[in-house]
Write a structure and sequence with these properties.
Elements lengths: L11 E8 L4 E7 L6 E7 L6 E3 L5 E3 L2 H11 L7 H16 L5 E3 H15 L1 H11 L5 H10 L20
Parallel strand pairs: 4-6
Antiparallel strand pairs: 1-2, 2-3, 4-5
Helix pairs in contact: 1-2, 1-4, 2-3, 3-4
The protein binds zinc ion.
């Protein structure tokens, strides 16, 4: 593996251990040329996936990009990073086992939305707002209301909920 710091082609593996519940092998590497240290991950890849974007462009499926978009959605949320890792692994496995080498980006988007919904409401809404490209507050409000996530009690003052003991 080429050293990302100096470009030296031969880096040395210092340590190699299972990671992500055995779904990956984590290798710590050392560059003999510049002394740089970096980590690589080895994962099973069942097939090469191509993503067909809404623009009509094609791009190779990028796991790291998926991880980044999910970590942005879950930022500062009480979500265990291990759960996020497992979620990403599950999504990738599911994508790879769909039997298609080319997938529309919305297939991936919907899968992430579904997984985030089970994980954290706020992360779900954040991801949806980017993915569905909300441009106005009404888009948000409609989405929250459709999803049953809207705050209650601000619609009609006359309809006060029954108090305790009523
Ligand atoms: Zn180096």
């Amino acid at each position: 593996m080429r050293c990302p710091f100096c470009g030296e082609l031969e880096s040395q593996v210092k340590d190699s251990r299972p990671s992500e519940d055995g779904a990956a092998i984590r290798r710590r590497r050392h560059c003999p040329e510049c002394g740089g240290r970096f980590t690589t991950f080895e994962r099973v890849q069942l097939r090469e996936l191509t993503i067909l974007k809404r623009s009509g462009r094609r791009a190779p499926f990028d796991r790291e990009k998926l991880v980044r978009s999910i970590s942005i959605a879950t930022r500062k949320r009480p979500v265990d990073p291990d759960r996020v890792d497992r979620m990403v692994n599950a999504i990738v496995r599911q994508l790879e086992s769909m039997g298609e080498t080319e997938l529309a980006s919305n297939v991936v988007g919907e899968m992430v939305m579904k997984a985030l919904k089970a994980l954290d409401d706020v992360a779900y809404v954040r991801y949806a707002s980017v993915y569905r490209d909300f441009r106005q507050t009404e888009d948000f409000a409609r989405f929250l209301s459709d999803e049953g996530l809207a705050e209650e009690g601000n619609s009609d003052d006359d309809e006060l909920p029954a108090g305790p003991g009523a």
